[in-house]
Amino acid sequence: MCGIVGYVGSRNCVPIILEGLKRLEYRGYDSAGIALVKDGLFSIDKKAGKVADLVQHLSHYNGSLSAQLGMGHTRWATHGEPNDINAHPHWDSEEKIAVIHNGIIENYSTIKTKLVREGHVFRSATDTEVLAHLIEEMYKRTQNLASAVRHALAEVEGTYGLVVLSTHESDRMIAARKGSPLIIGVGDGENFVASDAAAIVDHTRQVIYMKDGEVAEITATNIRTMTIDDEDTEREIEEITFELSQIERGGYDHFMLKEIHEQPETITNAMRGRLQVDEGTVVLGGLRDVQDKLLKARRIVITACGTSWHAGLVGEYLFEEIARIPTEVEYASEFRYRNPIINSDDVVFLISQSGETADTLAAGREAKQKGATVLGIVNVVGSTIARESHGGVYVHAGPEIGVASTKAFTSQLTVLSLITLMIARAKGTITEKHAQVLSQELAAIPEKVSRILAKTTEQIKEIAEEFRNAQNFLYLGRGANFPVALEGALKLKEISYIHAEGYPAAEMKHGPIALIDENMPVVFVVPKDGIYEKVISNLQEVKARRGRIIAVANEDDHEIEELADFVIRVPRTYGYFGPIVNIIPLQLLSYYMAVARGTNVDQPRNLAKSVTVE
Ligand code: M6R
What we know:
By secondary structure, the protein is of the alpha/beta class. The chain has 3 domains: about 1-240, Aminohydrolase, N-terminal nucleophile (Ntn) domain (Glutamine Phosphoribosylpyrophosphate, subunit 1, domain 1, 4-Layer Sandwich); about 245-430, Rossmann fold (3-Layer(aba) Sandwich), CATH 3.40.50; about 455-600, Glucose-6-phosphate isomerase like protein, domain 1 (Rossmann fold, 3-Layer(aba) Sandwich), CATH 3.40.50. The chain contains 18 helices and 26 strands. A hairpin with a 4-residue loop joins strand 12 (about 215-220) and strand 13. The longest helix is centred in the last third of the chain and has 36 residues, at about 430-465. The protein is globular and about 75 Å long. It starts with a strand and ends in a 17-residue tail after the last helix. 5-amino-5-deoxy-1-O-phosphono-D-mannitol (M6R) binds near residues 354, 360, 403, 494 and 610.
């Protein structure tokens, strides 16, 4: 959730680290810090607030700050409020060892009590600081930084991606990973470490993805990776797959808006080379080895968090209705702790944009351990979930920087649709003709999304202006559009801080209807499908109570004008693919509501892009 970047080489690392931190800021952003080692001495600066606040603070050096070894960190607070003192890096007692850390040290309190008894004085309220003091103790015994880190980590419970620098050995960085992603960037006469490739892609495309339990000793010219017990581990150098332009705003006011507008292309990318429209067939290389398991699955379980969980709910409709496989969808955070009944003929799908979400990862490990086939639907190439799954499908949405997930969601839905078609064809639950029609429907979606973006934006800006002061919003939909209602509500609350609830439209009368009056905006997702009339009845119930209705309806729906206060038009789409199209105006609505309210769209308060702690 926090961001890490480190450098060792012959260049001045200050701009490299600060630029890297800016690129990582979307992951966590309540404070930032930098540690540099020069002439055997540390210089450490840290500041609550954004990276810009740290940069401003560094201006008192008048540009004189420079070093060839350094590291930086952006924090998303877990232990201790976000202030200057709790910002990383943290030192040992003698200020000779500094640590930056992502994750949580669960037994920090026990370790801290012991160290305090031995005379250590702590400055911060963080769990991370115990690492610095513990490594200090281990260094006294080993006189070797890598060994000291390994010995310290042997005493630690919890998760970490961390980097350690020391003036004792001022030519190296020690990095370690357990549960929080960390990559080593391989350069020429220089090396990098980062929690996310975005931080270093400017400088190198060659990376080593550190594995859980690995420690690395990194100098300008050498990288040694080892286990915590000092066994050498194999290193595989891989290529970063995205371009720098993909992690830049490219003329848009916010990453979220850019990512919303990328969707015609990202949905196309999710289908590219996979969907054969004329034949009505789908080829998914990442599922080839597990196809048999998938076709024979007694049951599918989909587990995920947040927006990815909403995609999973749509997946349930697709898998059950078209592929005719019983499917359950569960929050990963619940699944992992409830001893679920899993059999070897179950297939468990993990859906995750980042591929690093702690709960989803743990749910997958649990399912794997219980003998299920575990498959990932993941965006970030090389991420932990992608690596640990038996197989899977990348959604190929490209880097998603906006904290509110948009393009990843529609790509997840596209991939779920492709998997459904593949299974349905192979199992014969749909005919060839039907599969061809569905394939044509899918292939037509990017153009429909482009149309919505072009035609509805101005109208949605006006609606956002109208409702900018609303305190609450209700989102209602039925069938596969119920998850769309949930996702629309989540988007709104995440970035505009308006309380919003998503409900199945018919469920409203069992409680939420009590909330409806002339101050309650209600968003209905009401395409002309088999349950259109039912949703219209629910809409009438809201209208009768003077609720203000915003309807997302099809272009050829002429009844709706009479009933709704605002109608946002979307093209007709085959029912179970409808969510890919119907969510677009709701993404735009939440975006323009946030802009109208002046909130920080890309970095909403309290959130982090990738939730790598429980
Ligand atoms: O990276 P993941 O898809 O596993 O992330 C899951 C959720 O944390 C994520 O979808 C979150 O809800 C987003 N902020 C939604 O916009």
